[in-house]
Design a protein that fits this description.
By secondary structure, the protein is mainly alpha-helical. It has 2 domains: 257 residues, Rhopdopsin 7-helix transmembrane proteins (Up-down Bundle); 36 residues, no CATH class. The strands form 4 sheets. A 3-stranded mixed β-sheet has the order 1-3-2, with no helix packed on it. Strand 8 and strand 9 form a beta hairpin. Helix 2 packs across helix 13, helix 4 packs parallel to helix 8 and helix 12 packs across helix 13. The longest helix has 37 residues. The protein starts with a strand and ends in a 5-residue tail after the last strand. Pfam families: 7tm_1. Keywords: Membrane, Transmembrane, Transmembrane helix. It is found in: Membrane. Belongs to the G-protein coupled receptor 1 family. This is G-protein coupled receptors family 1 profile domain-containing protein.
Length: 388
């Protein structure tokens, strides 16, 4: 008898708990043993079978709920912090291309913060069975997961773009004022957006939501009226033929570029700061920009510890832990949220500017003394440019 085995996507496998004795992530119908479903990666809590997916009071469930609450807090704070970043830079009359890129990055990070909160919420909704694991909940999880991946890719690419432009500007300070005009900078941002959209196509086109045809036949799917299924042709092309290229462009290449350009830019900035009186104002400004942006690169690498650990666990054990999925969302939320405090720590004037912006917005924060060195000078409703 020929076996009819359907391979389910990892998004669906997140929720499947195979019965005892079922090995290799495969379960078959008790009516027609030849009819089976298979997961490329099994999902589990850290405690394994001790924490059943339907035992909602187990340690695994409580851990995921705790991480979910952290994600909501970090995501909301990150959203507010990035709004302040945008307002601070928009209140300056003459925005340089570096500041323009930071505004674009903050806008993308607002999107990432919102998506991580939505992904974590829809994931927990299905995990905790808050709404019966219906079609809407499954679709929202599938859609927001892909949107989060798109936002994460776009945020990383913008960070790489800022790192590369900072590297070029600090080594060629005179020529770059013609190379990176506002129009050219926006075109570069548009190119990065197109690249991120292209890389997100596989996630949106290789799976779909469907009524569960195995509801009364396969025990591991009896809790799911609707399931996420794979489109075989497109999935084989995206995740088979182009899987290596996608992984290199979306994961490993940005890490390598950020490390190389970040190290060389910081080395050049330290060299310029060591001979501060001998360099031009343009070089000093670029050195300040590099020093300002360095914590963002450091935060990126720190926040990638969780995803890299999850990557290794999946490849070494062939098991995807549900707690690690929440840690993955939390790391993306942290990476998108920590730029505002990083700018405040490294930029004294940015810190003053943000205080003034908050004062203007809420009128409840004590207005800082602008005579103590702040470079902001309000003219009517506008604000002149300030340094970091």
């Amino acid at each position: 008898m020929n076996s009819l085995t359907e391979k389910l996507p990892i998004l669906m496998c997140n929720y499947i708990e195979f019965s005892n004795g079922v090995d290799k992530g495969k379960d078959c119908s008790f009516k027609s043993p030849a009819l089976c479903i298979e997961c490329p990666v099994k999902s589990s809590f850290f405690r394994g079978e001790e924490d059943s997916i339907n035992n909602f009071s187990s340690i695994g469930h409580l851990t995921c709920l705790l991480l979910w609450s952290f994600i909501i807090i970090v995501g909301v704070l990150g959203l507010l912090g990035n709004i302040v970043v945008i307002k601070v830079f928009k209140r300056r009359d003459r925005r340089r291309t570096f500041e323009l890129l930071l505004i674009v990055q903050a806008s993308v990070d607002i999107f990432c913060c919102a998506m991580t909160v939505l992904v974590a919420t829809t994931y927990m909704s299905n995990l905790e069975n808050w709404d019966g694991r219906g079609a809407i909940s499954m679709y929202l999880f599938y859609f927001t997961s892909n949107m989060m991946v798109f936002g994460r890719s776009l945020s990383v690419f913008i960070t790489v773009l800022i790192s590369i432009t900072s590297f070029i500007k600090i080594f060629f300070p005179v020529r770059t004022q013609f190379w990176f005009t506002h129009v050219k900078t926006m075109l570069l941002c548009l190119s990065v957006l197109i690249l991120a959209l292209i890389l997100s196509i596989p996630g949106f086109t290789s799976v779909y939501i469907d009524i569960n045809p195995y509801l009364s036949e396969i025990s591991s799917l009896k809790e799911f009226p609707h399931i996420i299924r794979v489109m075989p042709t497109l999935n084989n092309f995206w995740n088979g033929t182009l899987s290596s290229a996608h992984e290199i462009v979306d994961v490993w290449l940005p890490i390598l570029l950020l490390f190389i350009f970040g190290v060389f830019s910081f080395w050049k900035a330290r060299k310029l700061n060591g001979s501060f009186s001998e360099v031009s104002s343009s070089e000093r400004r670029q050195a300040r920009n590099v020093s300002m942006f360095l914590p963002v690169i450091i935060v990126f690498f720190i926040c990638n510890v969780g995803p890299m650990a999850n990557y290794l666990l999946v490849h070494l054990s062939n098991i995807q832990y549900r707690e690690m999925n929440m840690i993955l969302c939390l790391s993306i939320a942290l990476n998108s949220s920590l730029k505002f405090p990083a700018y405040c720590i490294r930029g004294e004037n940015f810190r003053r500017d943000s205080q003034i912006t908050l004062f203007i917005c809420f009128a409840t924060i004590e207005k800082p003394n602008r005579d103590q060195g702040s470079n902001i000078r309000r003219v009517g409703t506008g604000v002149t440019e300030t340094r970091f």
